[in-house]
Prior knowledge:
- Chain A is an alpha/beta fold.
- Chain A contains 22 helices and 16 strands.
- A 5-stranded mixed sheet of chain A has the order 2-1-3-4-5. In chain A, strands 13-12-16-14-15 form a 5-stranded mixed sheet.
- The longest helix of chain A is centred in the C-terminal third of the chain and has 19 residues, at 451-469.
- Chain B is of the alpha+beta class.
- In chain B, helix 1 (10-20) crosses helix 2 and helix 3 crosses helix 4.
- Chains A and B meet through helix 1, strand 8, strand 12, strand 16 and helix 17 of A and helix 2, helix 4, helix 5 and helix 6 of B.
- Chain A: One of its GO terms (molecular function) is FMN binding.
Amino acid sequence: MNNPSHATATVYVPRDSAARSVGADEVAQALQHAAGAGDFALDVVRNGSRGMLWLEPLVEVVTPQGRVGYGPVTSEDVEGLLAAGMLDGADHPLRLGLVDELPWLARQNRVTFARVGVTDPLSTEDYEAHGGLAGLRAALELAPADVVAEVTASGLRGRGGAGFPAGIKWKTVLDCADELKFVCCNADEGDSGTFADRMVMEGDPFMLIEGMTIAAHAVGASEGYLYIRSEYPDAVATMRRAIGIAREHGWLGRNILGSALDFDLHVRVGAGAYICGEETSMLESLEGKRGMVRAKPPIPAIEGLFGKPTVVNNVLTLATVPVVMAEGATAYEQLGVERSRGTQVFQLGGNIAHGGIVETAFGITLRELIEEYGGGTHSGRPVRTAQVGGPLGAYLPESMFDLPMDYEAFAAAGAMVGHGGVVVFDDSVDMAAQARFAMEFCAEESCGKCTPCRVGAVRGVEVIDKIVAGTHRDENLALLEDLCDLMTEGSLCAMGGLTPLPVRSALTHFPDDFLGGRRLLDIQPVQATGPRTEGTA
Amino acid sequence: MTTSGSDVTVESVVRRVVARHRGERGALLPVLHAVQAELGHVPQEAVPVLAEELNLSRADVHGVVTFYHDFRREPAGRTTVRICRAEACQALGADQLVSYARQSGLPLGETTADGSVTVEQVFCLGNCALGPSVEANGRLYGRVGPDKLGSILNGTVSS
Lengths: 537, 159
C-alpha cells in the first residue's frame, strides 16, 4: 500500500454531468483501476459538483486537515497524482489546497447549495448528517397555515425568474377547499446560461424531495409532479433513484416520517419544447397535451393541473424551503437587500474564465461576478456584454456592470435578474446577430397560440435583416420598435412578451452593430483550427 | 408493418406500452417516450392505436407528436449528435461547430445516406460554463472544438 497514513483513503470525483462532460468518469475509472490493482487503498465517492466548473474534474481527497482538491484532473494525470502522494494530500502541480478555503468558494454564502458537491447525492446517511430532513421535521410540527406563514415571512420569491413571493402562492392553494391538490416542480430549465436546477437535482436530490414534501404539507396536496426536461438525462436518472430511496425510507408515501402526511412524487420527462418551462404550458404538457400557454386568470394556484389547485414552483425555490424551515424565516430574511431577500444562485457561463455557481446574498454587482469571480473571458479578450436572466434577458454593456443584482434595481434599468444566469461575451460578438437570434429562437420555440409571438418573431427576423442590410433603415427601425411594443403588450406569456428585451437592449447599447458603423473585428473564433485568413477584409 | 427480424408489430408495442402506463394521469407523453424508446421513432401507424387506447382523437395525438421536438416520425441515424446553439455556447464559437459539421457533409437535421449519423441542433444542455457543448447518443461533451467534434462524428472519442 502506498498510502500508509490511511487505512483506505476516501476520494471524491463528481458525478455532475458538467464534470462528466470533461472526463470525470474516466478519472474515477482510473482511480478504481489503481485500487483494483492493489497498489493503493481508496474508495471513490461520486459527489455533486462544488460549482467551480473550470476546475472540473475536481478530485478531492479526505485528509486530517480537511478535503484537499486537485484539478482539473484528466485520467492521464491519475497515475502521477497517486505516485506523488495525492492520497495524503501531497503537493503536485494540480494541487489546489483545502477546497473549503479556496477564495472563490469561501467568499460565497451557500444556503441552497450548502450540501451540493459535499455529499454523496444518493446517501440518506450523508443527507441527514448534513442537516437533511430538519426542515421537514420542523414543518410537520406546525399546522399548514403556520408553515405558509413562515415561508411568507422569509421573503422567499420564486427563483424561476418571475420572482413572485412563494408564501402568497402557497396561501392561495391552502385556502382552496378541494380534496385533490398538486405540487408541481418546474424543472424545465431551458434557458441558456442556467444550470443550477440541474446541479441541485444531480447533486442534492433529497433536498428537492424534502422541499416538495413541505409544500405538500403546507397546502394540503397529496400528489406531486417533477417535470424535468429531456435534455437532462442524468438529472432524470438521479431524481428517479432518489425518489425510490425516499419511498423505501418513509420520506415519501403514506404517513411520512410517522406523521399523518401522505404524499407521493412522480417524475415526468419533457419532450424538447422550450415553452414548457412556462408554468401553464408545463401543466398542459403534464396533462398529455401540446404545451400551449393558457390565458390567466384563472391562476394555476386555483385551477392548475387537471383543473385542481396547484403549487407550481421552480427547483431552486422548492429546494430552498427546507433550509427556511430548519433555520427559521428570520435567518433567511436577514440576507439580501430591499425586497430581494435571501440568497441568489448566480450561474456564470458563456465566454468566462471561471464559470460556475456563485451563491451569495442579493446586492452583489455584475462586475464583481464577472471580473472577481469569473476572472474575465475564457478567450482572454475584453468583455463586451453580458446577457442576464436567460435568452429573454437584456444584453448589458460594460458601463452598466455596477448595477446591484436585485429584482427592483434591474427592472428599473430595463433588465431582469430572472433566475440569475449570466452569459458573458467577448468583443468578437456581433450584437445584431444576437438580436436576430433572439427573434429566431422565439419563432422556433413559440407555442403558436398568440399572434404577437408566433408571427411577430418571424417578422422580427425579417426586419432586423433589412436594417442590417441598410434597406429603408429608418422605416424598418421604426417598424421594429412598433413590433417590439406589440409583442411586449400583446403576448400571452413571457416568451413573446420578453423577446423584445434582448432585441431592444442590443439595439440601444450597441447600435453600431446594426447600422454598419462598427466594422466587425477580424477575429478567429476561440477554438477554430481551420485555415487562417490573413490580411483584412 | 413489422419491425426487422421479428413479428412484433407497431400495434402490439403500442398496446403493451399503454397498458404499462394505464394508471398514470395524462399519460400520453410518457407513452410516446416509451414507444420511441422501443421503435426508435413514433410511426404513423401508432397514431390511431394511441387514439383508440387513450380515448383521444387522432388529431389530438398527431398534434402532440408533432408539437414536441423529441418525437421523431422517421428513424434517426445510429448515432445522434446534437450541437448546442444556445447563447452560452454561441459565445464560445458554437456556430463554428455547425459550419464544421456542414462542411463535413452533415448539415443540421439530416441523416447520412448510410444511416450512421444524424446531426441536430439543441438549445442548451445545461453545460453553459464548459461550452461549446455537444451531446452524442446521450453522452455530454464539454469544451468541444472542431477537432473533437470530428472525433465524435467519427465515433472515435472515448474520453
